[in-house]
Amino acid sequence: MQSLPLLRELAGHHGVLSVLQNGFRQREPRVRVIVPCRMNHNGGWLDACIHNVSSRGMLVASDGSVKSGDYIDIRRGTLVIIGRVVWAKDRFFGVRTQDRISVDALVGEPRRATRPPAAVEAPGERRSATRYASEAQAAHRAERSRQMSSFMQYGLLVCVALIVALAAGSHVYGLLDQSMGSVSAALGGQSSTAGPAHAPQAPNGN
């Protein structure tokens, strides 16, 4: 029987479409901020700056050699944020936090009077407000570039899914057309075998 493989094939195509539909979820809005902070990465303290934040993520800039998969510890005043780096490009990287973030609390939290010491204090490492503002523009461009890349990848996946769906529909139509042809041929054969019907003869009056 061709029905079972056909059902399996359709289920596979439906699964592809479901993954695409469920995998691309609407991105949570992010608030653009400029929040200088301290970051602990691999046991060393560095200056960093948060440039946008949501309830579960943030965009951070730092001179540390951070890569995807690293865990970092961010301090802003008395706030402690622990997260995992999910992507990194140049000085910027995205962080997925373990706990929810209060944007108001993060922005309103004052910096500590005594901060954790840096492993190495390079001259001019402290960034001025002007440099932070310039860095924020670069961070915005990096984030926008990453979003465009994600949209292009999703568009490519949608095109592939549409091609697969069209191919599956054409295949199903061909199978149904073949099945209907076989049924019509079988019915035609039965009609020809039965032959024409004969009317009963009238009784002879003689």
UniProtKB/TrEMBL annotation:
Coiled-coil segments on the chain, per record: none
Species of origin: Sphingomonas gellani
Statement: the UniProt record of this protein carries the keyword Transmembrane helix: yes
Protein name: PilZ domain-containing protein
Pfam families (UniProt xref): PilZ (PF07238)
Family annotation (InterPro entries): PilZ_domain
Higher taxonomy: Bacteria, Pseudomonadati, Pseudomonadota, Alphaproteobacteria, Sphingomonadales
Keyword rRNA-binding among record annotations: no
The PilZ domain, residue ranges: 25-102
GO molecular function, one term: cyclic-di-GMP binding
Listed transmembrane segments: 154-176
Keywords, alphabetical: Membrane, Transmembrane, Transmembrane helix
Segments for region (Disordered): 112-140, 186-206
